[in-house]
Amino acid sequence: MKAADIMVKDVVTVGPEAPVMDIAALMLERRISGLPVVDGGGRILGIVSEGDLIRRPEIDTDRVKLGWLRLLLTDDKSRARDFVKHHGRTAREVMTQPAHSVAPDTPLGEVVRLMERHHIKRLPVVERGKLVGLVTRTDLLLALVSRPVVPPVALKDEELRARIDAMLREEDWASSATVHVQVEKGVALLWGTVESEEQREALLVAVRGVPGVKDVQPHLGRTLPG
Asked: Which CATH architecture has domain 3-145?
């Protein structure tokens, strides 16, 4: 699946001069936790989220006591930028920028990677320089629960064993395990040794996820420390 398959097309946006109080009220009214800031041509300038609005002088949360280490690691420029963000009156002053974005044909795996890498909950979808949609964590959850049900796969035991072996060869965390796979009437029997309980659990989860596997019976010991 790609970003275009799950994105929201009717995106709530604001202009760069939108007042902070209006933005907060809009987010509450529409029950959203963030929105893009766009210019008159539809080009995205930044994102305003709940996190950008929680340190405000109106509610006495703007002042943050900095420890001596933080003071040493930050300069006046950075502290001045923080002051503008916490005291700004318009979207332009408080928004987070640059706004990380994706194209409509970006695979969902890359969407998730960007969200995790930049610690963000939403990604604008941009095409030809203009905002065309928005993908949020909620959209990913909706895609998960609305996925089509895949009918059970009927495979011969030998073919199923070959698929399990091929899957395990692709998982880097499984390389240190010694596992021999047998399949009897769709039930996978795992024989061998693992280095940790976590590796054992991962093997069980991985093999159960192979289409056609009815059950997994592990016979796995622990590798003795060298």
From this structure: Roll (3.10)
Tokens of 147: 């996925």
CA 204 vs CA 6, 66, 112: distances in Å: 31, 47, 25
Which residues share a beta bridge with 220?
A: 192
Q: Where are the alpha helices (DSSP H) in the chain?
A: 3-6, 20-30, 50-53, 68-73, 76-87, 91-94, 108-118, 137-145, 157-170, 197-208
Residue type at 199 in one-letter notation: Q
Place of tokens 């959203």: 32
Domain 157-222 -> CATH class: alpha beta
pLDDT in tens, 116-136: 999 999 999 999 989 999 999
Extents of the domains making up the chain = 3-145, 157-222
How big is the CA angle at 223 (ends 219 and 226), to the nearest 5 degrees? 170
Cα–Cα distance, 110 to 31 (Å, whole number): 26
CB 201 within 8 A of CB 175: no
Backbone torsions φ then ψ of 170, nearest 5 degrees: -85, -10
Q: What is the pLDDT of residues 11-63, one digit of tens each?
A: 999 999 999 999 999 999 999 999 999 999 999 999 999 999 999 989 888 87
Pairing mode, if any, of strands 178-184 and 187-194? antiparallel
Contact by Cβ (8 Å): 198, 204? no
Reply yes or no: is the peptide bond before residue 211 cis, omega within 30 of 0: no
